[in-house]
Amino acid sequence: DAKTTQPPSMDCAEGRAANLPCNHSTISGNEYVYWYRQIHSQGPQYIIHGLKNNETNEMASLIITEDRKSSTLILPHATLRDTAVYYCIVRVNSNSGYALNFGKGTSLLVTP
Amino acid sequence: IAGITQAPTSQILAAGRRMTLRCTQDMRHNAMYWYRQDLGLGLRLIHYSNTAGTTGKGEVPDGYSVSRANTDDFPLTLASAVPSQTSVYFCASRRNRGGWNSPLHFGNGTRLTVT
Questions:
Q1: Most buried among A1, A16, A31, A102, by the most CB within 10 A?
Q2: What is the number of CB-based contacts under 8 A between chain A and chain B?
């Protein structure tokens, strides 16, 4: 699986968009980009994933660059409850069943 | 409410003792996983199971064993606990058939302290 690089921490004001970057310069053509987050004392929670196209759901948007070497998770209107550690992972989408390997993530602090 | 249940929520264990962490899911997911989470190291995969009756080793399997007798349960056993196994343990599952992988669903973890 391709290695990912994320900033260790970021701040965001409540109500503003939070843009979390992720570099995955060694990503291969069949590897997907996944985002999870972990709120303190809870298990990780799935947010979104994509391959080439930008994706949007009720939680966030995922912007993947054309060369696929980086991506950005966007929380359009951050709230205090979005304070969490955000993990970017790249992984082949297959039936092999092998799990996603989580790195250290970005600790996002949303401030009032 | 469907999901993953882990037990116990927390445990203090004397070194050398045997301990089984329980994990049950009611979503009929075929694949299940055990992770440990340590400060500064993120989540690391211990063992996994693609389907009932099969298991595999993850990144940090030493000192742990698993079994998958049925779809719903995936217990993790520490045969002889050591202090370095002090950690928060997360169980996860997902559907892994039909040509695509669903996202991982996680339990809320077991906080284990080995003294």
A1: A102
A2: 62
